[in-house]
Amino acid sequence: MSAGFVSLVGAGPGDPALITVGGAARIAEADVIIYDRLANPALLAQARPGAEMIYAGKLPDRHTLTQDEINAALVEHGLAGRRVVRLKGGDPFVFGRGGEEAEALIAAGVPFEVIPGVTSAIAAPAYAGVPVTHRALASSFAVITGHEDPAKEATSINWKGLATGVDTLIFLMGVGRLAEIVDRLVEHGRDADTPVAVIEWGTLPQQRAITATLGTVVRAVADTSIGSPAITVVGEVASLRERMRWFDNRPLFGKRVLVTRTRQQASGLSRALAAQGAEPVELPTIEIVRNADPAHAGRAIEGLRTSLYGWAVFTSANGVDEFMRHLCEAGRDARAFGRAQLAAIGPGTAGALRRHGLRADVVAERYVAEGLVDALSHRVMRGVHVLIPRAEGARDVLVDALEAQGAAVDVLPLYVSAVPGQVAPGALDRLRSGGVDIATFASSSSVRNLVQMLGGDASALRRTRIAAIGPVTAQAVRDAGFDVAVEAAEHTIEGLVAALVADAAAAKE
Ligand code: SAH
């Protein structure tokens, strides 16, 4: 059997975006992944199905696997011919014991590589607004273990050299021994007024950071109960945080926001939320299930081609995509619309049309059915055939209004917004256990479906602030028995995010 291969991969400091391209590729190819506590588990989602996951644990006081056991596991899987990823927080060679693992692999003759990672020593300060060097303030930095007992006689740390010879001192693993570290530095000549920053869970949505001085930091840490994992930065650069803060002061920072759109549509909202500092929690509550009657769809397409319809009216991006799929399967393309005019309920739907090379002649100004009714109210509809491809069971407001104007309306049901067959279990558990601050809804069916997914007990939703994209969705929330905390003024995804930002700003005042 051919020997396997071990990659010692740096997972980065926490934010899953901070893994390297090479590291992410190794995770995707791995047969076995042995990961640490400080390697973000979100990265494991990129592994291929069936890859074996081994948690190597490591809490400060409790080892799930000892270092010897980890070394032995790496060697064993390597010799068994597997592609092994050893995923370690930050960089594998910065206090990660990666060196010991490499030695074990060399001794056993297992080929290996090292994929460096972004170390927390630099990234946690960066996300707190502290550059470890700065032209005017610091031209050197040192990364130091705080784990070693600074009081022990034969310390391997050169306290005198560090205290007086290095501008920025970065301590890892040191919060538990902060008092001794401070004493040693001051005793060896560092000014007690030197600025200090302590950053807990750096680069993650739960990041907390404080600034103080050597003289006050022990007290400040005790007051805020900041604990492991944390980085302590000692030096003039720590004072820059007040001006350079950029991450933990974003409008939605620290907010865990439930995204209930379909798996396909979730990412746009998640990205917009993350850009404002929120942590998106994706829990798809809708799965588009196609259920069009093929004969009806065929007649509709024929009707378009023969200019039967004066209008085709779209009330959702999904409706556009599904109709275009039918068109495509019938061997047709956008030309089938011929002279029919196109109406869209809002910019999202108009955007979906545009992606298929179609321009909406009318876009409602208020992105609800009533808005579409207004937009079409001054058009001649008497005797005009109108095609409405849409979800089954949608509201009748639009149909009634068009019929009242004398139109012959043909509603073509294309899909239902069903409860997903497979539920994301992690996200549902998080919602149930209070791990969500805000729940967002972009449609009535997402509200109804989530309530159904929560089974008998929807009380978890009562602990969240509920945000609705518009009045119809808000009404669905109230019909389900919950309060609406935020309703977007503009009924788009951007409008929803803007409303959340405004809500958070108001709460801070
Ligand atoms: N190899 C890692 C360090 C491992 S030692 C790296 O390069 O980052 C573990 C210590 O790293 C923790 O005790 C803490 O001091 C620090 N650490 C790791 N991740 C951190 C984070 N997200 N925020 C603050 N400190 C972190």
Short key terms for the protein model shown above:
single chain; 509 residues; alpha/beta; Cobalt-precorrin-4 Transmethylase, domain 1; Methyltransferase, Cobalt-precorrin-4 Transmethylase, Domain 2; Rossmann fold; 4 domains; six-stranded mixed beta sheet; five-stranded parallel beta sheet; binds S-adenosyl-L-homocysteine
Layout of strands and helices, then pairs:
Elements: E1 5-10, H1 21-29, E2 32-36, E3 52-57, H2 67-79, E4 83-88, H3 98-108, E5 112-115, H4 120-127, E6 141-145, H5 159-165, E7 168-172, H6 178-187, E8 195-200, E9 208-213, H7 217-224, E10 230-234, H8 241-244, E11 256-259, H9 263-275, E12 279-282, E13 287-290, H10 294-305, E14 309-314, H11 317-329, E15 341-344, H12 347-355, E16 362-363, H13 369-376, E17 385-391, H14 397-404, E18 408-418, H15 425-432, E19 438-441, H16 444-453, E20 465-468, H17 471-479, E21 486-487, H18 493-508
Parallel strand pairs: 1-4, 1-5, 2-3, 2-4, 6-7, 11-12, 11-19, 14-15, 14-17, 15-16, 17-18, 19-20, 20-21
Antiparallel strand pairs: 7-10, 8-9, 8-10, 13-18
Residues 13-14, 38, 88-91, 94-96, 119-121, 124, 172-173, 199, 201-204, 228-231 line the site of S-adenosyl-L-homocysteine.
